[in-house]
From TrEMBL:
The modification N6-(pyridoxal phosphate)lysine is found at residue 63. This is Diaminopimelate decarboxylase. Pathway: Amino-acid biosynthesis; L-lysine biosynthesis via DAP pathway; L-lysine from DL-2,6-diaminopimelate: step 1/1. HAMAP family: LysA. It catalyses: meso-2,6-diaminopimelate + H(+) = L-lysine + CO2. One of its GO terms (biological process) is lysine biosynthetic process via diaminopimelate. InterPro entries: Ala_racemase/Decarboxylase_C, DAP_deCOOHase_LysA, De-COase2_N, Orn/DAP/Arg_de-COase, PLP-binding_barrel.
């Protein structure tokens, strides 16, 4: 998919770059991002919305993969940016991302984070709870500023996805519940706060969603709620944000819908619901993360040791694992992979791919068909663009890999591999523990 192909040497090529060369140049493990594919995905959203004729913003959910080069690509592709922490905000600002196109999310923004975002002049705060509503108003008042807010609501829709990543149901740590009247109270309070300009509501029902039904239901709930607010409080919302969660294909059997299908389901539902109530059509915002970067990422590993348990299984270990991709250990996520240096050979061996962490759960792929594997081979694991580098850790003091953007035969380093100095960079030895000279 994307610009990936097998070249005449039998090597995997991404963005016109032979990955065997990339391994030599940058070392492994290595995250390789197919920049053209990221841009294509972004354009699919923008294009699909343009065709509806409605006003919209496609905000890239930077949590999926937040580095400065990615912020630049998002900006160039006309996207807005959703951040959820001071670190993501800082990254975006350092990359020169236009502050007015940044939306700040999160269920526990600290006063410092709010100050930072306010000083930068970001476009909108997505307010999650009453504590934050009061805090934001107070801080904005101190600075004599008026800020745009969306209220995050829980529409009471359960998306069919992993428990940890579904968020739209009532019993969730996020947002104001529509069903029990909390969201209505939040709107009343927001309207009463002089420093807040209420733009509308936000709903995010989960992640890695393969159907449109959940989005349709969320629109219905949000529309009914907006209409109720207009009737009772006389306020109309100029913006409705439907969050992210659009699924991607990791392995055979995953059946995401085309981007245009999700967009059309959302916009059609908005048009139907709001027009029926004679409600001015709001601007529609969405926040895709995974579906912008997920399938554009590939992680390249070097195969090291192997362990054959006759009649049971063969383990093959690579030079990374749960530190660069915690998703299999965390969610039981599945991945596909190929031997990148012998991608055209027949798949005659069944192996299970282990990471190098001291933990039995550090397995990347169970039962993968490969050509006969040898130490020194390169394994390319696909669809690692989202929530991999973003969730990477230094467990076992393993250094985080480098990230390159590959495009038109050129590979550019966008994140350097961590150094040993980075590993101990924040460590301090108190005087009393120092070794005598
Ligand atoms: N908007 C909000 C408010 C969100 O909470 C999220 C994801 C997104 C947008 C983007 O969702 P996406 O389009 O990427 O599905 N670490 C998990 C995923 C957690 C998603 C959290 N929120 C994973 O690796 O699957």
């Amino acid at each position: 998919h994307g610009t990936s192909r097998i070249n005449d040497k039998g090597h995997l090529e991404i963005g016109g770059c032979d990955v065997v060369d990339l391994a030599k140049e940058f070392g492994t493990p290595l995250y390789i991002v197919d920049e053209e594919l990221v841009r294509r995905r972004a354009r699919e959203y923008v294009q699909a919305f343009r065709e509806t004729g409605l006003r919209f913003q496609v905000a890239y959910a930077s949590k999926a993969f937040c580095v400065m080069a990615m912020c630049r690509v998002a900006e160039e592709e006309g996207m807005s940016l959703d951040v959820v922490s001071d670190g993501e905000l800082y990254t975006a600002l350092q990359a020169g991302f236009p502050a007015e196109r940044i939306h700040f999310h999160g269920n526990n923004k600290t006063p410092e984070e709010i100050e930072m975002a306010l000083a930068a002049g970001i476009g909108c705060f997505v307010v999650d709870n009453f504590t934050e509503l009061a805090l934001l108003n107070a801080i904005a008042a101190e600075h004599g500023k008026k800020v745009n807010v969306l209220l995050r609501v829980t529409p009471g829709v359960e998306a069919h996805t992993h428990d940890y990543i579904s968020t739209g149901q009532q019993d969730s740590k996020f947002g104001f519940d529509i069903g029990n009247g909390t969201a209505y109270k939040a709107v009343e309070q927001a309207l009463a706060q002089p420093q807040l300009k209420l733009l509308g509501v936000h709903s995010h029902i989960g992640s890695q969603i393969f159907e449109v039904e959940g989005f349709r239901m969320a629109v219905e709930k949000v529309a009914a709620f907006s209409i109720e607010v207009r009737e009772k409080l006389g306020a109309t919302f100029p913006v409705i944000n439907l969050g992210g969660g659009f699924g991607i294909r990791y392995v055979e059997g995953d059946a995401p819908l085309p981007v245009s299908t999700y967009v059309k389901a959302i916009t059609d539902a908005i048009i139907t619901q709001f027009t029926a109530a004679d409600y001015p059509l709001p601007e529609i915002w969405v926040e895709p993360g995974r579906s912008i970067v997920g399938d554009a990422g590939t992680t390249l590993y070097t195969v090291g040791t192997s362990k054959d348990i006759p009649g049971v299984r063969k383990y093959v270990a690579v030079d990374g694992g749960m530190t660069d991709n915690p998703r299999p250990a965390l969610y039981g996520s599945k991945y596909e992979a190929v031997l990148a240096n012998r991608a055209n050979e027949s798949l005659s061996e069944l192996v299970s791919v282990a990471g190098k962490c001291c933990e039995s759960g550090d397995m990347l792929i169970w039962d993968l068909k490969l050509p006969p594997v040898e130490s020194g081979d390169l394994l390319a694991v696909f669809c690692t663009g989202a929530y991999n580098y973003a969730m990477a850790s230094n467990y076992n003091r393993i250094r985080r890999p480098a990230v390159v953007f590959a495009r038109d035969g050129q590979a550019d380093l966008v994140v350097a591999r961590e150094s040993y100095e980075n590993i101990v960079g924040n460590d301090l030895i108190p005087e009393r523990l120092r070794k005598p000279a």
